[in-house]
Amino acid sequence: MLNVKNVNLGKVRSSIRELFEYGKKRKAEIGEENVYDFSLGNPSVPAPPEVKSALEEIIANTDPVALHGYTSAQGDFSVRKAIADYINSRFSTTLSADCLYMTCGAAASLTITLNAILNVGEEVVVLAPFFPEYRVFVENAGGKLVVAECLKDTFRIDFKQIERALSPKTKAVIINSPNNPSGVVYGEEEIERLAKMLEKYSSEHGTEIYIISDEPYRELVFDKSIKVPYIMNYYKRSIVCYSYSKSLSLPGERIGYIAVNNSMGEWEEVYAGICGAGRALGYVCAPNLFQRLVAKVYDKTSDIDVYKSNRDILMSALEEYGYSVVRPDGAFYMFVKALEEDAVRFAERAKRYELLLVAGDDFGASGYVRISYCVSPEMIRRSLPAFKSLAESYK
Ligand SMILES: Cc1ncc(COP(=O)(O)O)c(C=O)c1O
Questions:
Q1: 170-223 pLDDT per residue, tens
Q2: Residue 305 has pLDDT above 90, yes or no
């Protein structure tokens, strides 16, 4: 008998992937330009030019045996040191290379971290709306996902909901800012308040609660005056799961890292747990070439002006057509209120207008749809009449 849970997981595609596959079929039937596919969060702008030049330089000047060989399980020391130094200079932390573990992107970072800290039955609080794979990752690590809804209509943190969600079994809270799917960026006050609340709760109950900050979108903020607080500056028991998938437009290369805050007393134990979980899961020695690459371009970001302009065009058009939209300050997603109560039905109806929108239900927020606007500006413009007709169909 096979592992039924995983067999079933493999058979059921996520609703995002399902819609993406539908889109591929539909494009073959009626032409790519006639389908408005807002399903996936696949960056639509190229990697910054420094990526290509650094790759060429690395390939030209590195011994091929070393270039394609294994690195240390946790990642090459000089790569980890370069990234730790960069984090320290940017956020005034004091991380060493031994606080970092190189991974295959944020998904691996999260899975490893959860396996490192969770015992069977312990709880992980997520803030809805949330990235649907959190449930898969938490449950696979033996944990239980507990949902704390954000405030309706703003999707900012609802502290009453967090208070309700906490229990003596709470082991971690996952935060994700800029957020997929809402695009909301949590401000300093919110992060401070969350940190204080968790400190108070854990000291009253004699427990340890970690904040896991899932950060694939850290660099994707459109207004320079909006800061994304660095969790290690606010909360000791914190772990950052970072990825270059979106910031450098390299999602297929699978590269990121875990950074453990060394201001918590037990940080070396946590790091050992991460090394152990990485080993147990087979996530050792992240891709060598791309480890070397990110050590050279860690401070670069793809040109995100296109995402900003897509956001602006789409937001003002949607509001004009009568949709209500939560203003996204970052990432490349927009969470829009469905025009009927059932967002799944709304997303089905949108398909009649060749609009592929993901219903918010899997993100833990019914009544909304997610639009991934990491698409070409031409597609945004072409899609506007379809959004208008969809809205008119409800009048
Ligand atoms: C919130 C969030 N976390 C994690 C991931 C996984 O990122 P990666 O491609 O780096 O594994 C994604 C990918 O879309 C995401 O949106």
A1: 999 999 999 999 999 999 999 999 999 999 999 999 999 999 999 999 999 999
A2: yes
**pLDDT 10s digits, 266-299:** 999 999 999 999 999 999 999 999 999 999 999 9
Region of residue 257 (phi > 0: left; psi between -120 and 50: alpha; otherwise: beta): beta
Helices (H), the chain: 4-11, 15-30, 49-61, 64-67, 77-91, 105-117, 133-140, 159-165, 188-205, 267-281, 288-297, 305-320, 343-351, 377-392
Q: In the structure encoding, which two tokens stand for residue 173, read together?
A: 């809270």
Question: What pLDDT was estimated at residue 266?
Answer: 98
Query: How far apart, in whole angstroms, are the C-alpha atoms of residue 17 and residue 12?
Result: 10
Inter-helix orientation angle 288-297/77-91, to 10°: 30
Ligand 1 centroid vs 111 CA: distance in angstroms?
A: 11
Could you give the domains of the chain? 4-48+303-392 (3.90.1150.10), 50-297 (3.40.640.10)
Please report where in the chains the tokens 């290690």 appear, as a residue: 232
Confidence of residue 111 (pLDDT cuts 50, 70, 90): very high
Q: Which of 131, 257, 335 to mutate to test the pocket of ligand 1 (most atoms within 8 A of CB)?
A: 131
Structure tokens at 77: 């020391």
Q: For ligand 1, which residues put their CB under 6 angstroms from it?
A: 41, 105-107, 131, 176, 180, 214, 216, 243, 245, 251, 256
